[in-house]
Amino acid sequence: MRIIELGANTIELKGRFIKTAQIWREWDVDVDDPEAIVRAIADSGIRADLFTFAQRLPHTKPRFPYHMEMDNVAAIPISTYEEWWENQVNRRVRLKVRKSVREGVRIEKVEYDDDFVRGIMRIYNESPVRQGRAFRHFGKSFEETKEANGTYLDRADIFGAYYGEELIGFLKIVYGKEFARTMGIMGKIAHRDKAPMNALIAKAVETCVGKGVPYLTYGRYFYGHKGADSFSDFKRYNGFLKYDLPRYYVPLSALGRIALMLNLHKGLKAALPGWLIKPLLRLRKGAVEKLHGDRSKSGQENP
After folding, report:
1. CATH number attached to the domain at 75-241
2. Which of 51, 96, 180, 264 could form a disulfide bond with 195, CB atoms 3.0-4.6 angstroms apart?
3. Which residues contact 60 (CB under 8 A, 6 or more apart)?
């Protein structure tokens, strides 16, 4: 990945063979004049084969005449806390949030200081494997962890879930133009029975209601061809809905046009048929768990 300053825009260049340009941290940017960006890329001499951009909530209807595919986002439409609690969440979520309170879990708004960063590190370093894949934050240094979680602090709220004095979960909400976005939400595996994640989502909804934010987003609802999994189930139970958003692809070279024709514009992985994805994911999960299990037994695991 390469980051390039291009006038008023920051461009992210991805891909080894097919170079794709997109707005860096595009979740935070509305693209109103894509032609101007295409011209700027061409004039800069950057070697890019495709330019891709997506619309953001609440703009779900296509606005531009380029090659388009539907992307998606997981979002809770916010009206009142009572509406979310009574009508948008699964009954099990209400039970879990109540259990979290009974167990003594406290959700507190916190300052982003060094002690809090160390608490995040303890959560990160609990396991090298999360959701069946190697966890990319495992073993990060204090400086790396602080930098990664310290973005957008001027328009963010950060909450900690505490059991006694122990940080067992955290949530960062960043406020955009017409929605809020979760940027970092995780709980300790050892305290999963206390439902800190559900309690944190409840606090996020309450906070968005208080600020008049119309949507709370949490990444995608579905990723690639995977379809429903435990992650999307968690979102659905907590009141997130799937919103389809147009994503556009603009060819910038002959290779980019060929990639679009052959359905290779999102990479080889995305071109695999849906029926093949889940078996491959199960194989990867087993391999990752075996690898880290073997390392742990032989004393090779990171401290």
Report:
1. 3.40.630.30
2. 96
3. 243, 244, 245, 246
Q: Which of 40, 10, 193, 165 is nearest to 102 (CA)?
A: 193
Contact indicator for 72, 278 with CB cutoff of 8 Å: no
Q: How far apart are CA 60 and CA 66, in angstroms?
A: 15
Three-state secondary structure call for residue 104: coil
Q: How far apart are the first and last CA of the chain?
A: 29
- H or E element that contains 198: helix 196-211
How many whole angstroms separate alpha carbon 289 and alpha carbon 49?
Answer: 37
pLDDT in tens, the chain (303 residues): 789 888 888 999 998 889 999 999 999 999 999 999 999 999 998 899 999 999 999 999 999 999 999 999 999 999 999 999 999 999 999 999 999 999 999 999 999 999 999 999 999 999 998 877 889 999 999 999 999 999 999 999 999 999 999 999 999 999 998 999 999 999 999 999 999 999 999 999 999 999 999 999 999 998 766 666 788 999 999 999 999 999 999 999 999 999 999 988 876 655 555 545 556 555 655 655 555 554 444 333 332
Give the residue extent of every domain in the chain: 2-70+246-297, 75-241
Residue type, 261: M
Residue of 187, 170, 172, 192 whose CA lies nearest to 107: 170
